[in-house]
Amino acid sequence: MENIDQQKRSLGALARTDWLERIFKLRQHGSSVKIELIAGLTTFVTMAYIIFVNPNVMAAAGLDHGAAFVATCLGAALGCLLMGFYANWPVGLAPGMGLNAFFTYTVVGEMGYTWQVALGAVFLSGIL
């Protein structure tokens, strides 16, 4: 009985591995589930600072801190998911701190535009 339970657990783990293999072609890229999990954790720890720093930078321009926090988290999550599932490329994406600092300290701070006007310009430039 114990041997059957052990086989069932092994088959469950194999099915999960096969699913990941089919979607991401890990063996073809010279990787494994373990390597990808370690790489994902490393990337998360490396990028996690942005969810705390970016809202503070944006709040300095006048944006609501909580809204900037949620937008940062959602933007990073959506970017990473699109890169992983659509592009099948293991790259982490998050808001760029250099551009956000330029937005806050130059466009809003030095040039005197309101954050609404500056954000509108960012939106228009993204469309173009």
The main β sheet shows up as: none
Apparent shape: elongated
Query: Which range best describes the helical content: under 10%, 10-25%, 25-40%, 40-55%, 55-70% or over 70%?
Result: over 70%
- Provide the succession of SSEs: HHHHHH
- Rounded average pLDDT: 86
Low-confidence stretches: none
By DSSP (H or I, 4+ residues per run), the number of helices equals: 6
C-alpha termini separation = 65 Å
Q: What amount of the residues lies in strands?
A: under 5%
Estimated radius of gyration: 21 Å
| Number of extended strands | 0
Give the total of domains.
2
SS-derived structural category: mainly alpha
How would you describe this protein?
The chain has 128 residues and is mainly α. It is 77% helix and 0% strand. The chain folds into 2 domains: 29 residues; 96 residues, no CATH class. The protein has 6 helices and no strands. Helix 3 packs across helix 4 and helix 3 packs parallel to helix 5.
Quick summary of this structure?
By secondary structure, this protein is an all-alpha fold. The protein is built from six helices and no strands.
